[in-house]
Design goal:
Number of helices of chain B: 11
Distance between the termini of chain B: 15 Å
Number of strands of chain A: 13
Strand content of chain B: 5-15%
Largest sheet of chain B: 7 strands, mixed
Shape of chain A: globular
CATH architecture of the largest domain in chain B: 3-Layer(aba) Sandwich
CATH superfamily of the largest domain in chain B: Glycerol-3-phosphate (1)-acyltransferase
Strand order of the largest sheet of chain B: 1-9-6-2-5-3-4
Structural class of chain A: alpha/beta
Shape of chain B: globular
Strand order of the largest sheet of chain A: 3-2-1-4-5-6-11
Oligomer: heterodimer
Structural class of chain B: alpha/beta
Helix content of chain B: 25-40%
Number of strands of chain B: 9
Helix content of chain A: 40-55%
Radius of gyration of chain B: 21 Å
Largest sheet of chain A: 7 strands, parallel
Radius of gyration of chain A: 22 Å
Number of domains of chain B: 2
């Protein structure tokens, strides 16, 4: 008998692709996608159940289909997606609680995979350069997605304790990036003038969408118990990323950042929540040794390659494109050297 | 104030092997003892204090270590103008398009060599006329921990040590420094520190750098050393909790006790405006003969003569596995390092002719 997999958050880009990926696997009998809205993209042979995971219906779905693997990708990152912070928190935290309660009662469940985020580590000046999975956050996130994710992880730990027979995998992803995925970071880097906090240059890590799905897929079809950081190799600085994207940085002084951030959120331009501002100020690095050694996974794209794939695919109208800069270099070079030979 | 008053204690024993003798035998050697530096192994280098390595024939090949800008204090002929322009523009193009690498700690080697160190080179060569001793004690490759005294109200001593090792060590080594969290909290300073290779003084970062074969620098006195009054010059303050020794033991790399003489006199700190410091969130607010009375002019450091002495390495390879878990050993070794630096300081001080020459 093959696997029966339930995927939450299936109507969003990554959830949809995950469901499709799973339906292509002959060892998986059924894929059930759950979300509050119907999927817009193709989810392959996957069956869609329109259900709110905040609702006990989820328990009936799990029992009726004899689900053995649950992939929880239903934690959402921005209030815009949910229609307000209150609804967002409810979907993220209460939804996870309901889902886990249903899983705990279902004897068929054997595996749980949770898509979490490296933002649970917070960001601040007392952070080590690289967070390994065992390091406690020095600046625990107090708002937003990061806080929700930290709470979700706490409930998942509780579940793992109560159901020791279930293999629980928690994946702390660096920011997803790539040709298709839409995240607060992709809209941030699509701004023509990219606001940054003056005097700081955050260290960033990215995971390419294909690599991220690959990890989720691997942990869905085999047992990899534990907590894993997932990120592409290497680090890029925020200033460097802005240059790679051909954008121009707009340094703002810290008092202005808060005001500008609120204005941008209300204008729907980009997520500039306090948590995001902290991240864009101090940055963060996560150590992926465990991912390489225990999951045996090496991402195909490094952080920089993943970012470049995003830049190329979006065809951002680059203010400072490499061609223009090279042309300027040649012009300047010929000017200066002619001047030099005349002297 | 006459400074020759300071009398060295036990001045004739150079290596000060007092406190702890490394436990010999009984333990297997680590497989990686290749980069271990033997005492006096500097014979490969005949002139350890040569002003600057000879310019490497200025070939067309572009190597990141090579600096396109004219190097201060050098009197060799400038490379061809066209070539320099082309190289400078190539560098600018790479910077503008983001085509460069930084490491996990945010260190940007190219920017450090060519831009960030530039303002400090004239300061190093012309203003403080820094003299280095014992550079051969710093290994050419592999991890090592440079431990030095901290002083001078503003922590330029660390940057000068960095310049010394980058420009004057035969292997042109980058010194990766460990800084307090306040450094990374401060705008611009934190950004500068990360880009020039510093990271937070935490055991995980120190171990990652040391096991990665980097040359790491620590100033265990921290703000207690930089912000001490002038009357306490060249008296080492308390040495933290010995975390740096544990990191060196864990990574089995040598500890290089280093004495920096001259930094104490750049901004003689006569007083500390505590209330103002607390208001500004600073560990201290210095009052020197010139600052803040002369405004920005008061920020010009006095041109004292500097000597940086890298002492004989204290080897950690022979300690048994897991020694970093032995607090008594760590404390003793910390004391040994502290004593060694203090004696080196006294030795260099009596040799120095005057504060300014």
């Amino acid at each position: 008998m093959g696997q029966v997999v339930l995927v939450t958050g299936v109507s969003r880009y990554l959830g949809g692709r995950m469901a499709k990926l799973l339906t292509d696997d002959p060892n998986i009998d059924r894929v059930i996608g759950v979300d509050v809205v119907p999927p817009r993209a193709d989810i392959g042979r996957a069956e869609f159940v329109r259900a709110d995971i905040r609702n006990p219906i989820i328990s009936k779905v799990i029992n009726a289909a004899d689900v053995d693997t649950v992939v929880h990708m239903g934690v959402i990152a921005t209030p815009v997606q949910a229609g307000g912070r209150v609804a967002m928190k409810e979907i993220n935290v209460i939804g996870t609680m309901q889902l886990l309660a249903a899983c705990q009662k279902a004897p068929s469940i054997q595996r749980l995979v949770v898509k979490s985020t490296s933002s649970v580590y917070g960001a601040g000046p007392r952070d080590p350069a690289m967070f390994s999975e065992d390091v406690e956050p020095r600046h625990s996130p107090s708002t937003g997605w990061a806080k929700d994710s930290a709470e979700v992880e706490a409930y998942v730990r509780g579940f793992a304790r109560r159901r020791p027979d279930v293999t629980v995998t928690t994946l702390r992803f660096a920011n997803f990036i790539g040709p298709q995925v839409q995240t607060p970071m992709t809209s941030y880097f699509s701004l023509p003038l990219v606001p940054v906090v003056a005097g700081y240059d955050a260290r960033l890590q990215f995971i390419h969408e294909d690599d991220g799905l690959d990890v989720l897929y691997r942990t869905t079809i085999a047992d990899y118990p534990g907590l894993f950081n997932v990120a592409g190799e290497g680090i890029i600085a925020l200033s460097q990323a802005i240059r790679l994207a051909g954008r121009v940085a707009l340094p703002l002084l810290p008092p202005v950042v808060g005001v500008a951030g609120r204005a941008m959120i209300s204008a729907g331009l980009a997520d500039f929540s306090p948590e995001q501002v902290r991240f864009l100020t101090y940055g963060r690095g996560i150590d992926t040794t465990r991912m390489v050694e225990e999951l045996g996974f090496r991402p195909e794209y490094s952080t920089r390659e993943a970012f470049e794939s995003f830049v190329e695919a979006r065809d951002l109208n680059r203010v400072l494109s490499p061609d223009r800069v090279e042309a300027a270099e040649e012009t300047l070079g010929s000017l200066l050297t002619r001047g030099g030979s005349r002297a | 104030m006459p400074e020759a008053r300071i009398i060295p204690i036990a001045g004739n024993e150079p290596s000060a092997q007092g406190g702890v003798t490394p436990l010999r035998g009984g333990t297997e050697h680590t497989p990686k003892d290749a980069p271990r530096l033997k005492a006096g192994g500097g014979s490969a280098r005949t002139k350890p204090r040569a002003k600057r390595p000879e310019p490497e024939a200025e070939a067309e090949v572009e190597s990141p270590a090579e600096s396109f800008a004219p190097l201060p204090g050098s009197d060799y002929e400038q490379p061809d103008w066209d070539e320099r322009v082309a190289r400078g523009l190539r560098f600018l193009r790479r910077r503008v398009t983001g085509d460069y690498e930084i490491d996990d700690f945010g260190f940007d080697p190219e920017l450090t060599d060519k831009v960030l160190m530039e303002p400090f080179r004239p300061l190093y060569e012309k203003w403080f006329r820094v003299e280095t001793r014992g550079l051969e004690n710093v290994p050419d490759t592999g991890g090592a921990l440079v431990v030095a005294n901290h002083s001078g109200t503003v922590a330029i001593d660390s940057v000068m040590t960095q310049v010394a090792l980058l420009d004057h060590h035969p292997a042109r080594r980058h010194l990766r420094m460990l800084g307090a969290d306040l450094v990374f909290q401060t705008p611009f300073v934190g950004e500068y520190a990360r880009k020039s290779g510093s990271t937070l003084a935490s055991s995980s970062d120190a171990q990652a750098l040391l096991t990665g074969g980097e040359l790491v620098g620590v100033w265990p006195e921290g703000f207690k050393g930089v912000g001490k009054p002038y009357s306490e010059r060249y008296k080492l303050q308390r040495f933290g909790r010995g975390g740096f020794v544990a990191a060196a033991l864990h990574a089995r790399v040598p500890i290089i006790p280093t004495a920096i003489v001259g930094a104490e006199e750049i901004y003689p700190m006569l007083g500390d405006a505590r209330t103002l410091a607390r208001l500004l969130g600073l560990p201290y607010f210095p009052l020197t003969p010139t600052f803040p009375w002369l405004g920005p002019l008061g920020m010009i450091p006095l041109p004292s003569k500097w000597i940086i002495m890298f002492g004989e390495p204290i080897h950690t390879e022979d300690f048994p596995e897991g020694s970093e878990e032995d607090p008594m050993l760590v404390f003793n070794l910390t004391d040994q390092v502290r004593e060694t630096i203090q004696q080196q300081l006294y030795r260099v001080l009596v040799q120095r002719r005057s504060i300014f020459f």
